[in-house]
Amino acid sequence: MDLPRIVSVDDHVIEPAHLFETWLPAKYRDRGPRPMTAGIGELEYTGGKYRITMDPDGRPTDWWIYEDLRFPYKRNIAAVGFHRDDMTLEGITREEMRRGCWDPAARLKDMDLNHVEASLCFPTFPRFCGQTFAEAHDKEVALACVRAYNDWMVDEWCGDSGGRLIPLCIIPLWDIDLAVAEVRRNADRGVRALTFSELPTHLGLPSIHTGYWDPLFALCQETGTVVNMHIGSSSQMPATSPDAPTAVQATLSFNNAMASMSDFLFSGVLVRFPRLTLAYSEGQMGWIPYVLERADDVWREHRAWGGVRDVIPEPPSTYYYRQIFCCFFRDKHGIASLDAVGRDNATFETDYPHVDSTFPHTKRVALDHVKGLDDETVHKLMRGNAIRMLGLDLDTPAA
């Protein structure tokens, strides 16, 4: 099979050390994030949370220092190029990383090696939906940091890529008016994707049921801006017990996406905003058929006492097939259930440069998943659905 070049809807970028020095206005730089190389102590993982300390005698590691936050880069988030058994939670410097982690020109070369034409990249230091700045004390500086990150993302990370690196922007989550203004600012320069929290109440923010986020959703609908929700964008991964190994968390990583989708299906948001597009990132898709079956069953049998009789006029799966995209990279069960998942709803990702990344073997992994599917479906999964979702110019016939 001649596999189409892939449009990956979930990759990641390691921010270069010069980001805020270059893009943050000078008056904020002494209060903004600063890069530092210093030793790292032993990491503790308890109940889904990491505790990280500096240690002058520890392994040299690149950090960001911001207010009272000490944020290190670790091997598991810059794992490409390492042997599987060396993809650990040890600290790492940019010099030790594969250059494509943080250099856009090198990333394009790695995409060529990996059969990838275009890529949407989530942040690392700001965390998946900008939680770092939402948690900051000085919100004036935090807002400047959000804008600086987005300017860097649009003009530097994506700027010289010829459309192959697709801008994904963060918003000031702590203020709906500022969030709307930032979406408008970015939409006006062609950005069609933002990253949002899968479960905002876990961040101490209003739920999607309150109507608080409706101005944001309304503008996203108006501008065709996709609301992307990455697993972990609630700063809380599923944890069973405080002493469970991280392998349990990794196995259950889809859980928050499943919970978030259930939330949206019964929220009325997709009823009020019928052209709003949601995208679940790194959540896989094998679980979706049962969730849709269960949600429709609840709607039929329990909608009166369940509180959604007057909110959701059609079976919840209606809104999924109309407005929600999922993505996968290793999910043969999802492929086997593709008709229920939706041939028009599934997209593909490579997760570069994380531990889960299929780099540099993505073409082989993808072919193993799509063997036996017809050419039209393969095209949809590898690129067509992503192009439609993000409104990309790729595959546009010449005039």
UniProtKB/TrEMBL annotation:
A single GO BP: secondary metabolic process
Annotated GO MF terms: carboxy-lyase activity; hydrolase activity
Domain Amidohydrolase-related: from-to ranges: 86-392
UniProt keyword 4Fe-4S present: no
Lineage per the UniProt record: Bacteria, Bacillati, Actinomycetota, Actinomycetes, Kitasatosporales
Protein's name in the database: Amidohydrolase
Top-level taxon: Bacteria
Annotated InterPro entries: ACMSD, Amidohydro-rel, Metal_Hydrolase
Pfam families recorded: Amidohydro_2
GO cellular component entries: cytoplasm
Keywords in alphabetical order: Lyase
